[in-house]
Amino acid sequence: MAGDRPLPQPDEDTAFFWNGCRENKLLILRCNDCGTYIHLPKPGCWSCGGTDLAPAPVSGRGVVHTYTVNHTPLPGFDAPYAIVLVELEEQKGLRLVTNLVDVGPDAVEIGTPVEVVFEQVSDDVTLPLFRRRKDGAA
Amino acid sequence: MTRPVAIAGAGYCAVARSLEQSAGRLTVDACRAALADAGLTAKDVDGIATYPGGGDSVSSFYAAESLGVPKLNWFEDLFGWMPAGITPVIAAAEAVANGGCDVALAFRTVKRPHGRPPPGIGFGARVGGDMQFRAPFGDSMTSSWLAMWARRHMHEFGTTEEHLGHVAITSRHHASMNPVAPLREEITLDDYFASRMITTPFRLLDCDFPVDGGGAVVITTLERARAMAKPPVVVAGGVFATGPRPDWDQWDDLTHMASKYAGDRLWERTGMSAADLDVAELYDGFSWLSLCWLEDLGVCAKGDGGPYFASGKARVGGGRVPVNTHGGSMSGGRLHAISHVIECVKQLRGECGDRQVAGAEVGTVTAGGGIMGGALLLTADR
Q: Under DSSP, is residue B232 helix (H, G, I), strand (E, B) or coil?
């Protein structure tokens, strides 16, 4: 990808996620009361309303739930490029917007098994990107 | 107190790709047109609602002062994620029903920033809020968010690019009979497939057409409306809806939008059903949105929206419930569905000429896409 892509500005609720990525760990906020994963990070649990929440490590394994190949030029990106929505295996509907590092825009398919790979893009930002899973298992 | 409510007047200002007039001027023109349609003047108005939320319009107070409204008993400026064109209409209808005011204007004006548009939402060195989880991956445009929903719908139900093309063709066919529509030249599937890709599966001809313009309606009690210049169009119901996870990525099922919840709620509140509809003006910021609205309102089965358009059932004279008889946003211009409201009013009054749905008595107007939706049910005064 080209440089100068927009980078995240973490806040009190989201810093754990980006700090985790810097250490090559994918952390998702989880409710200690009901076990539900909560993404995007919020101060309360969408499932039970609980507020006892803590970041929890997840496997980084998932499948491509849907995607679009964007042909519109945006600063920092070489169009066309694929934007994918990966559903993590820990919970139905738990999804991350990301890009695939090893699949070209013409080859993206719904259902492709993928796993997280971390890419440092600046001094303080590492992004969770994904690649095709070698074991192939969905 | 709850009073039956009607739309007594409807009107447009100029609508075109690019206009010299300010947002304020366009607003005044649209409001005066709606008032004239009802046989009223600004002196009769005591309520105003609008959505100036895009930074592309003016406030209720600005409109009131520019129009010469003597005094407002009720006003509302609406912001944030919402079905922008019909939210003020529903808000004004509720205010009149509850006695907050007696004669309300509801308007939506869109004056685009001219010059090169900004590259999506969330550009700049650092991006906070929800966009910090999208912008770093190049996911900065509503087109890409909804394209991913459309792709999922294609995956689960076999909806095709050709189906989307027929939404565009139908829109343009209806616009060809609407003198107000800025795009009136009919198109073919070849034209559709030749239009440039924006973000798959959306081509340029899947997108609404950005314009400067606006529209307004006059809302009052049914009793008062019956004494005004035009036949009243009754507001039978108006609803807003979202789902349990109002987030563009975490939404439970990307094959339906908030349209599902809005549709269910509309029929629940009005005691009517899709079987009662004669015409449907469905928000079409992108082609797939009106297809999805059609399914989620129950006009056709889930997954059958594509074939409904491809078989001509969405055309005036072609099927039971024609869709976007004015050309929608895709051919009639991106006015955030205030044009859909005006068209529905005109259809129910029988004023639409070549594109008139014969005997139309019940119509719906929907707005919004993805995580938020709103729907209106309008009827003739029966």
A: coil
Shortest CB distance from B132 goes to which of A14, A69, A85? A14
Any CB–CB contact under 8 A between A125 and chain B? Answer: yes
Complex-level ipTM? 0.96
Judgement on whether residues A30 and A18 belong to the same structural domain of the protein? yes
Q: Does B200 touch chain A (CB under 8 A)?
A: yes
Q: What is the pLDDT, as a whole number, of residue A2?
A: 46
Show residues of chain A in contact with B122, CB under 8 Å: 6
Find the domain containing B24 and state its range.
5-112+210-225
A40: cis peptide before it, omega within 30°? yes
* In a domain? residue B154: yes
Read off the pLDDT of residues B114-169 as tens digits, 9 standing for 90 and up: 766 556 665 557 999 999 999 999 999 999 999 999 999 999 999 999 999 999 99
The structural domain count of chain B equals 2
Provide the CATH number for the domain around residue A123.
2.40.50
Distance CA B138, CA B147 (A): 13
Interface contact A74, partner B, CB < 8 A = yes
Q: Are A75 and B119 in contact (CB under 8 A)?
A: yes
Domain co-membership, A134 together with A80: yes
Whether residue A50 is found in the same domain as residue A91: no
The per-residue pLDDT for range B290-332, each reduced to its tens digit, is 999 999 999 999 999 999 999 999 999 998 899 999 999 999 9
All residue ranges of chain B with pLDDT < 70 are: 1, 115-124
The number of C-beta contacts closer than 8 angstroms across A and B is 122
Q: Indicate whether B99 belongs to any domain.
A: yes
How many structural domains does chain A have?
2
Phi, psi of A64, deg, nearest 5: -70, 115
Contact between chains at B254 and A66 (C-beta distance less than 8 A) = yes
How far CA B16 is from CA of A66, B166, B283, B332, in Å, comes to 36, 24, 19, 9
Distances (CA, A) of B317 to A101, B252, B280, B322, B347: 50, 37, 13, 8, 13
Range of the domain at A122: 59-138
Radius of gyration of chain A (CA): 15
* Three-class SS state of A15: helix
